[in-house]
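Good morning,

Both structures are done.
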Amino acid sequence: MNNYSNKHNADEKSNPLIKEKIIGHAVKNELPCAVAFKIAKELGVLAIEIGKNVDLIDFRLTKCQLGLFGYMPKKKIIKPQSTVDPEIKTAIKKALVDKRLTCENAWSIAESYDVHKMTISAACESMGIKINKCQLGAF
């Protein structure tokens, strides 16, 4: 049994509507990142609320859209890029907060440059930059 609920206060309870949606979309108690965001959009709630509710029912988030967690057999599938587009490199450097790139900023850069989200995380791997503040609260 997972203990993801231990990340939260013992008195916190899952939202029944969010819980129902998670259970309806999960497979083997796992919910992919993209599906979590889809549920957040459908319900008009922040992604962090979906992530918290996944934790509270001790389900597992999988298949991070940045490639940073939730893949088998290895948790992380992202590899450093051999070369990084100079414009993307500059955008990443400008978006750093305390020498790290937030998940939200990584997504924003990917959208701005019309590239896959994993392109940004692979660039960060090459640059030795950590991504933090997962929008779902996984890291």
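Second structure follows.
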Amino acid sequence: MRKNSVKNTRINGEVQRVLAEIIRGGIKDPRIAPMTSVVAVEVAPDLKTCKAWISVLGDEKAQADTLAGLRSAEGYIRNQLARTINLRNTPQLTFIMDQSIAYGVNMSKLIDEVVHSESIEDETVESNENN
């Protein structure tokens, strides 16, 4: 099975959906932040390993605690995944913190600041020309 085959794409989508449900409703670990989302999932073509990119709304401590909680609950998550999805092999899970949403929010703030400062400069230039 090729990495980008239709079958692998369907498996990635299904694992992502089920993983999000398990994290949202099945885990009672207080370290896992309530605003945790599964951004992307990449299951290896041989179904042995799975990388899951996780995004957490919160500070760095909340992100680290959530990652630690998910890693400690990996056995439970894998068991629930095996019960829900009928695959030949249940993949070994690896959780990776995804910083792309935080990066996007930060870039958006920087762009807004630049636009705001330019509009203030334009207003001062116009008021100086009028005087």
